[in-house]
User: Fold this.
Amino acid sequence: MHVTSNILNMSGLGDSLLLNVFGNRFWHEQWFGGPAASASAQEADDMYMWLWWFCVAWFVFLMVLMAYFVVAYRRRPRVIAQRSAAHNVPLELAWTIIPTLFLAYIFFRGFHSYMDRVVSPGNAVEMNLTGWKWSWKIEYPNGAESTAQTVIGARPVPVFYVPAEQPIKLRMNSMDVMHAFWVPDLRLKQDVIPNRYTTMTINFDKPREGETVHTYPATQELADNDPKYREFAGNLYNKALAGVEYTEHHVFCAEYCGTEHSEMAAIIRVIPPQYFPEYLESIGIGSKTPLEIGQIVWKSKCASCHNIDGANTGPEWRNLYGNEHEYTDGSKFVADDNFIRESIREPGKHIRKGYTNQMTPWSENLLPEKHVLGVIEYMKSISNKGGAAAPESAPAPATGEAEKK
Amino acid sequence: MTTMNPQKPLAGESLPKWRLYRPGHHWRSADDEFEASKFGFWLFLATEVLLFAGIFCGYAIFRAMYPEAWAEGSRLLDWKIGGANTVVLLISSWTMAMSIYCFQVDKQKLARQLLLITFLGGLFFLFAKLGFEYMPKWTGYFLSFDPALSHHHGEIDAAQAKFGGLLQFVEGYGGKRPGKWFDYPFAQSPHMPLWWGIYYCGTAIHALHVIIGMTLIARAWYRAGKGCYGPTHYTFVECTGLYWHLVDLVWIFLFPLLYLIH
Amino acid sequence: MSAAHAAAHGAHHGGSYLTPKGGFITTVWDWMTTVDHKKIGVMYLFAILFMFFLGGVAALVVRTELWTPTRTTEAGTITGQLLAPADAKSVATGNDWYNRFFTLHGAIMVFMVIVPSIPASLGNFFLPLMLGAKDVAFPRLNLLSWYIYVIGSMFAVGSIIGNGVDTGWTFYTPYSTTTDPNHWRVVFMVTAAFVLGFSSILTGLNFVVTVHKLRAPGMGWFDMPLFVWAVYSSGVIQVLATPVIGITLLLLIFERLFNVGIFDPALGGDPVLYQHFFWFYSHPVVYVMILPGMGIISDVLAVHSQKKIFGYRAIAYSSLGIAGVSFIVWGHHMFTSMSEVASAVFSGLTFLVAIPTAVKVFNWIATLYKGSISFTTPMVYALIFLFLFSIGGLTGLPLGTLSTDLHLHDSYFVVAHFHYVMMGGTIMAIMAGLHHWWPKMFGRMYNQFWATTAAIIVFIGFNVTFFTQFFLGVRGMPRRYASFIPEFQDYHRISTIGSYILLVGFLLHLLVFLHSLVVGRKASQNPWGGLTMEWEASTPPSEHNFEHEPLCKHGPYDYDTTVPPGWDPKDYPIPAENLRVAAAVGH
Assistant:
């Protein structure tokens, strides 16, 4: 099929729309809306385009035949149907065997390209990917977790920075229900299943022809007003990425998982491999204070349901710490250290009035004690009853909470 | 086989109901109707087999995944009770078949007695299942005449009489419940809850079939009392018999899989 | 004057099955307790059309919500959600309602409309007539199936009244076992599907026995109309596949009520096992949905081109072949959650199904060759079926191909594909069948011009709605999304417009049918010149179908031997000496 479009281009007629509609490139653009992001994805695209022309050919053949018969043998007065054979063994054998051969070819070609794409090469770097209701996170080889975020619309979604030209084997696991990790630009998807690991190999090329290349702001001032580059609180800007060119790819959850299934997106930003080690270094969690850890945990694990300014699927965090709240069974509790810890480990125990039990229980394996302490520290810092860590001028009660009461 | 078309009564003769039976208006003969009913019922039995196939399939998969839980679980079942139930079901299957034979040769009284024995066999099965197996495993309470009380000496020494001596409570014996409700304190394998899930699902769905079969037998017994079945018309009893044999057959597979192989 | 009344005038002794038995109460009681397969077929038809209406409303709500993407603004408010209060602070409320509506649409359309549609309504009415029988094998069982269907549907409606279910019609675990833990509505909906399964089993079993035991004298297996072959094949699938979904749903109910843990990963259970069980039923059942439709198309094409069907045996055997292969391809719904080896095996097996399906399409088109084709509404629908079903079948190829399925799985491409097969196939076939047999069922003709116009509107609306969804899927739009990125908005809008065109088309059909019932011209005994036995019964058929037991003297499509040369298809009926009810039987 490439040959066709090349011939068209060489003869100088490639720009004419009439000929374009017979061109592979034109239809690839119509179908996919953009180039594949890796060589193996390109293989899948070629397979798809081959099938597309195959289907078009068969469909046109059948419909032209049907239309011709319908017109040629339309009913005429006093003319009965002509005698014709009611079966024809050679013809019937032919139209059984020929499609069978085509189908065999399609199967083997599809299988071959599939194996190329699901078997990870020996030099792949392993990363852990976790999905839960309703977000994703990646744990990098050095133990650091993805913390960057950007917005789709105005909604925050996680950002995963990965190096180009480096096969990455994602070891995937779900914390609650089934999810599926779909990177449309890689033409790849894999279910993410609780209590079991599944793997998926991603291997981005350098920016390919037709891909949009973005540039990370070179200075903090440029980044400050741009919600696209919002990192976790207190670290709005990552110097390690200053001026780096990257390509952006959507990730969607493709297995239905409940209320915010359609919001369970992420962005993969592919950076040149030489910048990746420095980026990894910059997000390591080792030397951070509890408050910083709390901010990171909130951004990466909690922010999809808990806002710090207004209600979401879960209760708002601003002014939560140290205050008394009412729960669905009518009881009232002051949100102190122990209550918050219990609410993280066993969220089903007490459900805040006006909310439903949606939250995943975060066990020690999923959220180490150090992180829980960080969260408590962070909650103190945004509460009017947070003690020493409280902001100097206590913020006004948040609007969302006020409206609820 | 004997012809099954109805006979016309002679003048002054009073015929039993089965001799007056006429097939539905869309059938050419009573033979056709009988054959079609049997064919339809065999198809229905095929659906029943496929229903249980789901349970057996789950059993096989989890057995392959967690063999240690399956070995431990089946050791906690008492093959003597299961075996007794197997024998009872086999006997009741035989009495069921004999009952159909008796209808075929018009021995009405014996046929009804055999139906009654079959029914009592089903009742015994359910009683043993609930009283000797489900209740102690679930709650730790034994019926005081439970044979298990006398031969499980090691575990059951600490029995305390409750409810006027009718029930004996054994500390630490109960709690063998399915899934999340499992709290048997001496479990070795972490996957024991799953074993009990399969055990209760399989045996409960089977027990439900025993109850349905007993209902059919009770109806056959009642209608036989009115003279509805005889040599030329016994479709309902025949189908009830087929159903009862299926109930038996399923148990013949469940028993060794659950009780015997470790 | 009611249709029933008018029809009663036309029929000879005893009147038609529609003749009222007395006053209003008596007549209603007569219908509620009837064991007549024709009345049960009509009751099924109306019950199914009502559920089709409910499912259609849910579909329109879904499409309307997708007119605009949901957006969280910088100020923290939500825009673009029709199903949530205007001042919503989070997407949760709107999304939950969206999820309930698409679940309702799926569950109703699959379990309550498409699975029972053709066999239980048209099949019930015409299978005995086509076999020359007075009724199905087990008439009381038939009535029981209808009541079970109604009870099952009531469970579903019950869960709708209790605010609906958000599991998706597939009830995938562990989502379906954990969502909404304090309410009974999920259990209700699963129970509905479980109960409906019994209805399906009993109907299928009844038809299989009927075909085996109640064919008219002289009718061999290869003298049966292809519609009967198709209903027979789908009956076999119903009997053999439905119990598996029965046990699966039962275990799901146990899981929710007693926490048994078989599908619960937290206890070591296996959620993927649920998918295997589910698709072991739900893939064969796809062919329960489409096979009877294929049967209708075979009959309609032959009758309306007045020509012997091409390759009768090939079509009959391919029905059985599809039924057989359908049991070993379930894994192709799970290419993204199985091992590579299993995926490869299932992909290879999946392509096997394509062969008998392709053979059928070739046979249908070859049937048109040298025919005498009239553009009646049923024929127009049959041609629409060929067009849409070809697209549906061919788009199955990229889904069965492993490499491309990794991209297309669970995307809008799948949504478009199965709507082309299920709606473009089954629903178009039932429309063809309904227009083909409407005169026989109700004794009235309908306005062919407006019916054909409505058919063309439906055709256009369907393609506008669903062809765009192929593009959406390939471009990266996942299914079951309440919201989407702005790049997809144009396609979604086209699709939504299409769904309203569909609405207009179906409303027009409704008007045409009502018009026909009230003032329609009285139908003749054999308005299209069919040779199958149902056209030999009076119009509408009398209570016991035939005056005399019919005798099968020729094949169902023997136009070349029964129709004399120079005979005009408008000169119905066919000369008496060529008819099947021969003088020998005492006519």
